[in-house]
Design brief:
By secondary structure, the protein is mainly beta. It has one helix and 17 strands. It has one helix at residues 224-250; strands spanning 3-4, 30-31, 37-38, 48-49, 57-60, 72-78, 89-96, 100-101, 109-119, 122-123, 130-136, 143-152, 157-163, 175-177, 187-190, 198-199, 206-212. Residues 6-19, 21-25 and 216-223 have low confidence and may be disordered.
Length: 251
């Protein structure tokens, strides 16, 4: 499911080609066992969403890998999916679902979330644009993050990823997902770095919060030396013509 939340009708859109390659590699990611208690709070934050709003399970890597940077669970946002244009969108933050209570098995857990540009279908892990810490896994309701300074999304694709970070060594990953019959194909997972990331059959409940900018004024092209000389010549000729008209009236 594709949602531009808060828009008229919460529109759906056709998926576009150009997703990363999908090597046939296994992953240690798994759904957390057991039947967690479900919190009462709805997941209704954010503006750009691929999930259906109902958390069914939580994905992790078996336990204790939240400190390993080559492990991540991410959503690849494509502006075309929401009829938005690069350069006219401000990413002001994000939100993540926290509907399921795993406190009986160790939750909640801290995780790092990063925003990355896309390069040839892959997240540019060497150049994070924004970063924040979230704590989920106790079912107390969605976590909303607002950046101190928004980021202008100047490319048509960007990533929001829950990624391992050494500061959380020994902690668990915890990313809730839906169980849609028609996953959007925008949620990706890896336990050995970008080269081995694969799409999931769920939609991770991680959403972008954005502000759509009004149409920008058209930019004036640079004239260069030749252009400036031509403009000066035109102004001079107009001045001479005006002077002649004044002289003619006075004679």
């Amino acid at each position: 499911m594709l949602l531009l939340l808060g828009s008229a009708g919460g529109a759906c859109a056709q998926l576009q080609p150009g997703a990363p390659a999908t090597p046939a590699a296994p992953t240690t990611a798994e759904a957390r066992a057991g039947t967690p208690a479900r919190g009462a709070a709805a997941f209704d934050c954010g503006d750009l969403a691929y999930d259906d709003g109902v958390a069914e399970t939580s994905i992790f890597f078996g336990g204790g890998q939240a400190g390993e940077p080559d492990h991540f669970l991410g959503v690849r946002f494509e502006l075309d999916d929401f009829d938005l244009e690069a350069g006219r969108v401000l990413l002001t933050g994000f939100c993540i679902s926290n509907s399921l209570d795993f406190s009986a098995v160790g939750g909640p857990w801290p995780n790092e979330v990063y925003v990355y540009r896309d390069i040839d279908g892959e997240p540019d892990l060497g150049d994070p644009q924004r970063n924040a810490t979230v704590i989920t896994g106790d079912g107390t309701g969605q976590v909303e993050i607002t950046f101190e300074s928004p980021w202008i999304v100047d490319d048509p694709v960007f990533w929001i990823m829950v990624q391992g970070d050494p500061r959380h060594a020994g902690e668990d990953f915890n990313v809730e997902s839906d169980q849609s019959l028609k996953p959007a194909g925008r949620s990706w997972i890896a336990d050995r770095g970008v080269a081995f990331m694969i799409p999931t059959r769920q939609d991770f409940m991680l959403r972008a919060t954005v502000e759509v900018l009004a149409g920008s004024a058209a930019t004036v092209p640079a004239l260069g030396v030749a252009g400036l000389l031509a403009l000066a010549a035109v102004v001079l000729l107009l001045g001479l013509a005006a002077r002649r008209r004044l002289d003619a009236r006075g004679s």
